[in-house]
Amino acid sequence: MAVRCAFVGSGGMASAHLKAIAPFHDAEIVALCDVDAAKIQQRLAELKELRPSATPRTFTNPDEMLQEVEADAVFILLPPFAHGPAEQACLRYGKPFFVEKPVGLDWGLTRELAAEVERSGLLTCAGYMNRYRAGVQKGRELLQSDPAILVFGGWIGGSPNPKPGDTNIGSWWVQKDKSGGQIVEQTTHTFDLVRFLCGEAVEVCAHAANGFNKNIYNYTIDDASSVNILLKSGAVANLMSSCSANGGGGGVSLNVYAHDTTLLFTGWEHSVKILRKGADPEEVKGEDNIFAIEDRVFLDAVSTGDGSRIQSTYPDAAKTLQLTLAANRSIATRKPVPIEA
Predict the structure, then answer these.
(1) Which value, to the nearest 10 degrees, does the dihedral of the CA atoms of residues 332, 337, 103, 222 take?
(2) pLDDT of 107-130, one tens digit each?
């Protein structure tokens, strides 16, 4: 029997997940929900091409959607500032949900939602897709017996260029009160991988650079940042972010150095070169279809009730949000910030 899927949020990430799910014969798109009617129409047009037989109902309110539509799973694909009501509706109606990163901006609300998810036992999955990559899984296995000592990496890119009237990601990404800034919204993937590969953090100390990007519409985020992380294991990490490097040479990277093992991840796809003392180098290419891989795991879990293959649940993703918000707080206070267990 097909898993009936409802989408909350109809922006770019909804497009990515619709394209990932469309080939799955055991998945049915039954509803789309967004406050922006134009975005819903864009997704409906895409869906007509991807799956001509699909006839999802459309809504502007997730609570109303779950009252009126029989859904087995909900995809919450919202900007950081918009989280809360959709997750609360899923909890109210007992609907398993997939939620894109970051899972919010309000730590108090996110902590309450995470606690309620754990109390209810509701099946959840968060969009930290890099955890599903074969190279990441291989690296994590190696680090179990040869733990990380030093880690560094980050996301280095050019200056954003939003325009008045934009309704896409550029309209809110450059506003720190809506996106959380680059650390929270983008480099969150790298912070999450540090947790997944190396364990939990106990303290962060961060600094930011500002004033170098000029004359960018609605721009309130940091130009660049450097975050030092002390891990519970005793290892240390430094993660860098920049949205002001226009000369090139940036990109996505994460280097992990253990006693006898080195992991060198590069690119959005996180291909990895594995170096081990006394062994030949090994390379694992990152997967291009990572959204389909993580969506397949989530839908299988909904079908079977077995969530053991899910790599990041909502409560786990909340811990990554806690870490990135702590980095922002350290920037604001110019002091180290402990991470509460």
Answers:
(1) 30
(2) 999 999 999 999 999 999 999 999
